[in-house]
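Before the break, one more example. Copy the sequence into your notebook; we will annotate it together after we see the structure.
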Amino acid sequence: MTGAEDVRWRLDELYSSPDDPEIERTLEAALAFATDFDRTYRGRIGQLSPAEFAAMMESLEQHYVSSAKPGLYAHLLHSLDTREHAAGRLVARNREAAAERGVHLVFFGLEIAALTDEEC
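Here is what the structure looks like once it is written out:
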């Protein structure tokens, strides 16, 4: 026994249920952000001014904070009862959504890694 057996998360502060429509709205908004980010910045990372780079990074930070909420909820819900099918489906949906976003964001790390010392 670890002492954590009776711990229960207050998940209603995140979403009302695994079927809360706000979850899908958040995932759709995150995909829209990723698509727009791709369209706006792909091939341009090394050409951004310091102010543009800072603004890009702030928008990316906001995206990561907001898009993490459904996944956090899904994993916490699933940890309460791994036999709960709705929680398992939500974990899978979040993985699928992350993969969809990843298609549009993978360029970012590659372009950052390719920057020369002069470009940094």
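The chain has a mean pLDDT of 93. The radius of gyration is 18 Å. Try to locate both features in your own notes.
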